[in-house]
Amino acid sequence: MTDLTLGRVTADRERLLALLQEYGVYLGVVVLFLVNTVFTPHFLSTENFRTQAVQVAPVLIVALGMALAIGSEGVDLAVGSVMALSTSLLSLYLGYGPGIAVVVALVGGAVVGVANGSLIAFVGVQPIVATLALMVAGRGLALVLLPQLKDVHDPAMAELGSGDALGVPYVVLIAAALALLVGFVVRRTTFGRSLLAIGDSRPAARLAGLPVRRVLILVYVCSGVLAAVAGVLATARLTASDPSSLGNLMELSAITAVVVGGTPLSGGRIRIGGTVAGAVLIQLLTTTLIKHDLPPSWTQIAQAVVIVLAVYAARERGKR
Q1: Which residue ranges does UniProt annotate as crossing the membrane (predicted)?
Q2: CA–CA separation, 131 and 305 (whole Å)
Q3: Where exactly are the structural domains of the chain?
Q4: Distance CA 172, CA 154 (A)
Q5: Phi, psi dihedrals of residue 165, rounded to the nearest 5°
Q6: What are the tens digits of pLDDT across the range 167-191?
Q7: What is the pLDDT of residues 20-78, one digit of tens each?
Q8: Please, are residues 242 and 149 in contact by the beta-carbon 8 Å criterion?
Q9: pTM passes above 0.70
């Protein structure tokens, strides 16, 4: 093989990897959609689309917060536990009215975010260690507050979980609005630009005079609040609070959606559109496996494979 031919092969390989990094998640969504259209009965029904959209909404909301954390060159492993904590707080304070209960649940998520951000920004603990500690502590606290499953009987919460506007479920509308909001924050605000600068190079951001500690704390507060929103919506949809199971492995799904969507684990870049597509991809993958009678454990294996492939593509592209 001549040097010219080898150079062309290398260039083609790099071009393919770049395309996979930029558009692979959208291709994956299209492929899974077509596969289910052909092989999954009733996949194209309106009821199925509604079900899929409602199920993907909490994953997307959590993934938006995870994208902020990963964009700052961190990670938030506590998101599943925050969902559990929010459902416990919601159930405990529902007697004071749904509005107060939701606010308390969101404040709980913010408090966990402050704890995560403070450990990272002021103490210097690695994000994976800090959020792992809060993942364990948060789930434990949720179970202390609400040791067992409790039914949620409230008309307002039931309407939030199952109601719709012009045929679109409220949970889907909320998820879409939050995606647009986070996208605007990342692209159009000083906070978003500072976040990306910190993720790209924290020492350089400090030298540039950016409020690194404040931004990091706000990143994890946002992640905690978004996880709490997902917990509230999931509780409203299920009409029950179950801190022992709600949010289990949600961090895996959120990380998968973010990484597959093209946000690098090295930080400095966030792709909100890709994150949305990544969440849809995970939902379609889960649906495909379940509809064809494969055990749920295969979904976790498939997600792990997808993460490895996405990280490999990003790593190879980063070498160029």
Answers
A1: 23-44, 56-72, 92-112, 119-146, 166-186, 215-234, 296-314
A2: 24
A3: 25-318
A4: 20
A5: -125, 115
A6: 899 999 999 999 999 999 999 999 9
A7: 667 778 888 998 899 889 888 888 888 989 999 999 999 999 999 999 999 999 999 99
A8: yes
A9: yes
CATH number of 25-318: 1.10.3470
Determine contact, residues 265/283, Cβ cutoff 8 Å: no
Q: For residue 87, which phi and psi values (nearest 5 degrees)? A: -70, -35
**Direct distance between the N- and C-terminal alpha carbons of the chain, in angstroms, rounded to an integer:** 22
Q: What is the 3-state secondary structure (H, E, C) of the chain?
A: CCHHHHHHHHHHHHHHHHHHHHHHHHHHHHHHHHHHHHHCCCCCCHHHHHHHHHHHHHHHHHHHHHHHHHHCCCCCCCHHHHHHHHHHHHHHHHHHCHHHHHHHHHHHHHHHHHHHHHHHHHHCCCHHHHHHHHHHHHHHHHHHHCCCCEECCCHHHHHHHHCEECCEEHHHHHHHHHHHHHHHHHHHCHHHHHHHHHHHCHHHHHHCCCCHHHHHHHHHHHHHHHHHHHHHHHHHHHCEECCCCCCCCHHHHHHHHHHHCCCCCCCCCCCHHHHHHHHHHHHHHHHHHHHCCCCHHHHHHHHHHHHHHHHHHHHHHHCC
119/126 Cα distance (integer angstroms): 8
Q: What are phi and psi of 164, to 5 degrees?
A: -150, 165
The span from the CA of 277 to the CA of 100, in Å, is 33
The first and second tokens of residue 28, run together, are 């994956």
And the tokens for 101?
């209960």
The label of the residue with tokens 């925050």 reads 82
β-partners of residue 211 are: none
**Crossing angle for the helix pair 98-118 and 127-145, to the nearest 10 degrees:** 150
**How many other CB atoms sit within 10 Å of the CB of residue 188?**
10
